[in-house]
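Subject: for your reference before the review

Hello V.,

The reviewers asked for a structural picture of the protein, and I figured it would be easier to keep everything in one thread rather than splitting it across files. Below is the amino acid sequence we used in the manuscript, unchanged from the supplementary table.
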Amino acid sequence: MWQEFKKFALKGNVIDLAVGVIVGTAFGKITTSLVNDIIMPPIGLLLGKINFANLFIDLSGTGYNTLADAQAAGAPAINYGLFINTVIDFLIVAFAVFLLIRSFNRLRLADALLPDKPDVKDCPYCFSSIPAKATRCPHCTSQL
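And here is what came back from the structure prediction:
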């Protein structure tokens, strides 16, 4: 069983998947930082100096000023500002993945449209089909 597991774990696909997960996690952190630190502050400024991370509905009715205060007190809250940040984060990741797959598909389509190199060619002297790598025609013995 150990040998079978080792064989499975060391396959190229499993290693590629692990690398993809690690890079994807790092990309997710970068995207989250982009949303929280770069995109949302100017949007909040344009909408009247709103910090989306502090948008919440206090279900306890106490009236906390910030989400941090409500969380410190253990009050139940609906954190819709954090949800908005997460939705924007998802949209950016989804768009980036879309662009990546789109460019990959275009490359694959371009490769599919390229004509395959023929395995045979015609002799310019006797017009017989000969191997493409031939340097002398086997039919008429002409030098190619």
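For the response letter, the relevant points are probably these. The first helix runs from residue 2 to 9. Residues 119-144 form one domain.

Happy to draft the paragraph if you're swamped.

O.
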